[in-house]
Write a structure and sequence with these properties.
- The protein has one domain (8-218): 3-Layer(aba) Sandwich (Rossmann fold).
- It contains 7 helices and 8 strands.
- By secondary structure, the protein is of the alpha/beta class.
Length: 222
């Protein structure tokens, strides 16, 4: 009797204002859909984001909302749709991802959501450009992704095609990251597979989407 292929190891980068624990909980349906195919490893941003309600009490690092970088020189805000003067905290974010890739690697894939998707795309571009911190995975899955906006980032990383199999998941009613933003990011990946779903700003895992995930991942399990 033939043995089952090993599970694909996928590092998942949370979105802005998500915690590691919260992101894991929100992707419970996806983990169930990929059971027996993939092991999902979770990572949230290095920068804490203060909660509006201090009466809620202190959070553990796994529960505290975090971000990968900020688009304000001093504040803790972030806008995906406006070009900032800087991306404050990005270098620390890249260092955290590089450390996680070394710790959990070799990885088969990256999965990013929202700001985490933009960061995952950047990591892949840096890896392709020869950055030793980021060994190229075999594939990337980007959900509600967008191109990072900063004159310091765009050339040459996301202007050059990123030659990596990619799946791009777009919510037709996503009011945080419009579908056009995700399509522009998909345009940086030749041969990109796009998955449109009728929902908003979340990672879908209903039966129609499950079939697309599995079909995409099957090419890496044979």
């Amino acid at each position: 009797m033939s043995e089952s292929p090993p599970l694909l190891r996928i590092l998942c980068l949370a979105g802005f204002r998500q915690s590691e624990r919260g992101f894991r909980e929100k992707t419970g349906s996806l983990r169930k859909a990929l059971r027996g195919r993939a092991e999902l490893l979770y990572l949230s941003g290095p920068h804490p984001i203060p909660e509006a309600d201090p009466a809620a009490g202190p959070c553990t690092p796994e529960e505290e909302p975090r971000g990968w970088w900020f688009s304000e020189p001093e504040g803790t805000g972030f806008s995906a749709l406006e070009e900032p003067a800087e991306c404050r905290g990005l270098e620390e974010a890249l260092a955290v991802v590089g450390q996680a890739m070394a710790k959990y690697g070799p990885l088969d894939g990256l999965l990013g959501f929202s700001q985490g998707a933009a960061l995952a795309a950047l990591v892949c571009a840096l890896g392709q450009a020869g950055d030793p911190r980021f060994p190229l995975p075999r594939f990337v899955i980007l959900v509600s992704g967008f191109q990072p906006r900063s004159p310091k980032l765009t050339p040459p990383f996301l202007q050059a095609p990123v030659l990596l199999p990619s799946l791009h998941v777009l919510g037709e009613t996503d009011k945080v990251i419009p579908t056009q933003e995700s399509l522009e990011l998909a345009g940086c990946f030749p041969g990109a597979v796009t998955l449109h779903h009728p929902g908003g700003h979340f990672i879908p895992a209903a039966s129609p989407q499950r079939q697309v995930y599995l079909k995409f991942l099957d090419q890496f399990t044979k």
